Amino acid sequence: MSQISPRPGRGRPRLLPGKIAANPRDQILAAAAELFVSRGYAGTTTREIADGAGLRQASIYYHFGSKEEILAALLERSVQARVEQAGKIEAGMDSVAPDAALYALAVSDMSALVAMPYNIGMLYRLPDVIASPVYDRYGHLRGELVAGYGRVAERAAAERVPAGGEPGLGDLLVQMVEGVISLRREDRIGSTTVATIASACLRLCGIAEDAIEQARETALTALAQT
Amino acid sequence: MSQISPRPGRGRPRLLPGKIAANPRDQILAAAAELFVSRGYAGTTTREIADGAGLRQASIYYHFGSKEEILAALLERSVQARVEQAGKIEAGMDSVAPDAALYALAVSDMSALVAMPYNIGMLYRLPDVIASPVYDRYGHLRGELVAGYGRVAERAAAERVPAGGEPGLGDLLVQMVEGVISLRREDRIGSTTVATIASACLRLCGIAEDAIEQARETALTALAQT
DNA sequence: GTCTATATCGTGATAGAC
DNA sequence: GTCTATCACGATATAGAC
């Protein structure tokens, strides 16, 4: 990154001076994220990215070596936050009730997904992204996420639901949680969305309605302290 | 389609005579399906499709007017079977127990998804497909599918789970059911997969374990008669 | 650090021979 | 009905001026 020298007045001025607020790298990432998510990776051109970022097509190559490098940066961002938060919650699992831990995991993970700029959590679903060589570097992290869900869920479910099926509880729950991605694409995230899905996760573990309600309150107060 | 004249000996012979078995239109569709699903729509070239179908790039344009027309044909195939089956099950819903109807709906829908060539059920998830103008012609059908799931599920759930949340039960269940698409992409469809997910659907409606087991048997015998 | 200009290649689609 | 040949365009990426 020594190539970046943010000294004012350096470099030829941009044509469109309206967007010099944030640093250009982030502007490029933001524009690319929006386009990748709405038109796909292969369906997005570097020219469109440049337009969105407010600079010229060629100028992108000062900040990134290739189009694929932009994708890699976005992929890393999109998985990092989720895995980190999930790890923290699983680490502190022993101090709270198992079902509250699951509720907290679901809520914090969905919050991370919803908070991501331009819904980049869905990059992982795109075939051309998965086929890309850069996917291999971050793909296994999502597997760890599923495994984490599985461990937390098995505890919460106890013996209430038949275990050992394929797909496992972790797969089912991650599938449910990532439903917010589709909902968000359709602009359907409301004030009750996250709570509704989190409750559904506990229901999927055979937890009764009153216990779900209790786990919800425990989880929310625990999350508020973080 | 009057342009198709399958008289033997007509037309210049193909370079690669190995694949003349089925009709060329279907060969093109099959090749396109495999590629769209593995590399995305925009990421697939007509040359690659032609290679997969065993003819030359330009020859595709005898069977389809454009690349988009190929996509439209695949989209139609992928939604038709699901909506049809769902409609039949919902129509015969009164004659079986509500929870058995839901189980049957989930199983038959997942079976349709699993039976689709090259997992084309996932075309609906691709941003460049959704952004394409041809999507508008078939997109609303998926909405009807969700609504159908919602009606069947509300009956099965009765008053056991809080209703009226966003997302609705239909959204949650379709989300679960379409999880087979991801599993299939990862080659993880086993003998218990469909049953596990169908049971999870009922669990999501607050149905108890023994009732789930009973619904399963009722549904399977009902489906066997069809 | 961003620009203009351009090289080089790949794309979807068309024309016309066979 | 499939071929060869090619057009017109748009893609990523590079070179070098400012």
UniProtKB/TrEMBL annotation, chains A, B:
Keywords: DNA-binding, Transcription, Transcription regulation
Residue ranges of domain HTH tetR-type in the record: 22-82
Taxonomy, superkingdom: Bacteria
Residue ranges flagged as DNA-binding region: 45-64
Pfam families, A to Z: TetR_N
InterPro entries: Homeodomain-like_sf, HTH-type_TetR-like_transc_reg, HTH_TetR
Keyword Transcription regulation: yes
Protein name, UniProt field: TetR family transcriptional regulator
Natural source organism: Nocardioides luteus
